[in-house]
Design a protein that fits this description.
This protein has 64 residues and is mainly α. The protein contains 3 helices and no strands. The relative contact order is 0.23.
Length: 64
């Protein structure tokens, strides 16, 4: 999966880019796509039964 973020997006979104770069070295599959896209959409994950944090590539890189 290839992901690209504009500087404006990176500045305004709650993700640690260094963490994302490090995670880019990990192998991922299409199984991660659904969960990661929903994370990018900044949806309320508590209302989405199908969402699984462990399959969200971005989950561990969210700034707290």
């Amino acid at each position: 999966m290839i992901m690209g973020f504009s500087n404006a997006w990176a500045k305004n979104e709650p993700f640690d880019l260094d963490c994302l770069r490090k995670n880019a070295e990990q192998p991922y599959s299409h199984d991660n796509f659904f969960h990661t896209v929903f994370s990018l959409m900044d949806m309320d994950m508590t209302s989405l039964k199908e969402y699984r944090t462990e399959l969200d590539i971005l989950a561990q890189c969210k700034k707290k």
